[in-house]
């Protein structure tokens, strides 16, 4: 079994229980969680999902997972999602697939937020992966210049010849830092810029991380406090 399948399926089996409302993340790792939840439902388990993207909505529907909108649920028992990078303090970069805003809203609304990450995603320091920042289209070049003041190189994400558009109608600026020295501060600083909607740093949100150890087993990562 590949690493993404191993961590993705373990999350479904270990965290999703009968009667739960589950936040369904976006991407190629949590794909396996969603497919597994679909199988569990076919075997008789009652689970409802809240999707973090249009892409996940489609996948969940294909797998027979009943969906609720966030405003219809009282609480989300657990949200499960992938990450682009995660460190040993469980700080994460997300948004490589452009879904960071809805992912963060759903992670915050959840009683427990679990990340599924193959071994390549676990890093000592965040920053090798360009940090996605969702911005409103109006005045994007000005917003980009304010972001650059934090010491990064920026690229407006494109899809073909036109800017990539998120599910919320916004743009993404990908920001390359050599190393993110203080992720906690940077998360706040970026969100203070007028024009920034949200950034892909997930700080003090992740409860558990499922990854792969040296013996190729899916395990829970130890957290450094
Ligand atoms: O916007 C996308 C999400 O944050 C994904 O969870 C993240 O990019 C990881 O995706 P994948 O599991 O495909 O590497």
Automatic annotation (TrEMBL):
Active-site feature positions: 103
UniProt: substrate binding residues: 26-29, 81-84, 94-97, 121
Gene Ontology terms describing biological process: D-ribose metabolic process; pentose-phosphate shunt, non-oxidative branch
Catalytic reactions on record: aldehydo-D-ribose 5-phosphate = D-ribulose 5-phosphate
Pathway(s) annotated for this protein in UniProt: Carbohydrate degradation; pentose phosphate pathway; D-ribose 5-phosphate from D-ribulose 5-phosphate (non-oxidative stage): step 1/1
Record's GO cellular component terms: cytosol
Enzyme Commission number, as recorded: 5.3.1.6
GO molecular function: ribose-5-phosphate isomerase activity
KW Transport (keyword) present: no
InterPro entries registered for this protein in UniProt: NagB/RpiA_transferase-like, Ribose5P_isomerase_typA_subgr, Ribose5P_isomerase_type_A
Keyword Lipoprotein (UniProt): no
Alphabetical UniProt keywords: Isomerase
Enzyme class: isomerase
Superkingdom of the organism of origin: Bacteria
PANTHER family for this protein: RIBOSE-5-PHOSPHATE ISOMERASE
Record function comment: Catalyzes the reversible conversion of ribose-5-phosphate to ribulose 5-phosphate.
NCBIfam families documented for this protein: PRK00702.1, rpiA
HAMAP family linked to this entry: Rib_5P_isom_A
Family: Belongs to the ribose 5-phosphate isomerase family.
Subunit structure: Homodimer.
Name this protein carries in UniProt: Ribose-5-phosphate isomerase A
């Amino acid at each position: 079994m590949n690493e993404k399948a191993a961590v993705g399926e373990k999350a479904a089996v270990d965290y999703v229980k009968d009667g739960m409302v589950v936040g369904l993340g976006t991407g190629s790792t949590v794909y396996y969680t969603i497919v597994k939840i679909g199988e569990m439902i076919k075997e008789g388990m009652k689970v409802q999902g809240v999707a973090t993207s249009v892409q996940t909505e489609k996948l969940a529907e294909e797998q027979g997972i009943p969906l609720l909108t966030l405003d219809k649920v009282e609480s989300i028992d657990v949200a499960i999602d992938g990450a682009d990078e995660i460190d040993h303090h469980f700080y994460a970069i997300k948004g490589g697939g452009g879904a960071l805003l809805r992912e963060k809203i759903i992670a915050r609304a959840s009683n427990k937020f679990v990340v599924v990450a193959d071994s390549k995603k676990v890093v000592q320091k965040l920053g090798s992966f360009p940090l996605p920042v969702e911005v409103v289209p109006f005045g994007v070049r000005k917003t980009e210049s304010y972001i650059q003041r934090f010491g990064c190189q920026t690229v407006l994400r494109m899809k073909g010849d036109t800017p990539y558009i998120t599910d919320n109608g916004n743009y993404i600026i990908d920001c390359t830092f050599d190393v993110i020295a203080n992720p906690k501060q940077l998360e706040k600083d970026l969100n203070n810029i007028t024009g920034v909607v949200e950034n892909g740093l997930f700080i003090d949100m992740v409860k558990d991380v499922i990854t792969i150890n040296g013996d190729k087993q899916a395990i829970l990562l130890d957290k450094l406090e």
